[in-house]
Amino acid sequence: MYAVVDIEATGGNHIKGRIIEVAIYIFDGEKIIDEFATLINPETSIDWYVTKLTGISNNTVKDAPKFKEVAERIATLVKGKIFVAHDVDFDYKFLKTELKKAGCEFDEPKACTVKLSEKHLPNATSYSLGNLCEELGIIIPEGDRHRAAGDALATTKLLGLLLGLGTK
Predict the structure, then answer these.
(1) What is the structure's pLDDT at 166?
(2) β 32-39/110-112 pair status
(3) What pTM, to 2 d.p., does this model score?
(4) Correct CATH for 2-166 of 3.30.420.10, 3.10.20.30, 3.40.50.2300, 3.90.1440.10
């Protein structure tokens, strides 16, 4: 069972930055069986570049829950599953740091769709999520790119395709 995750953050790294949006798709290898997505109030300012990229501003998240208010739900969803993300270390480190601050343990195995793509799609022109999806015909609706739910769903579809290639 896989927990396919994408986060958007205030900027910086997992030590200085904070999560501003998270999406999780629980994927059994064939279909999505559960999902969770929410904006997060980071209790700090969002970098202007992040706002330009994602469209998420300080105003967008001002009434969103704080991470500690959704930490238990997130921890429950990812527990006992393979944590998957596109460039997994970024999302994993952010989530691990935030969960630790909220008093939740997090130490799940992880898999990276960038690395899986490099292995199974050696002739791809680029391994960025947007370019891979375009080449493979995975549609990310307008406005959903660089948003947690859109990118996590695209990563889930990419993982499904890659799992199929891995069995051939």
Answers:
(1) 59
(2) unpaired
(3) 0.93
(4) 3.30.420.10
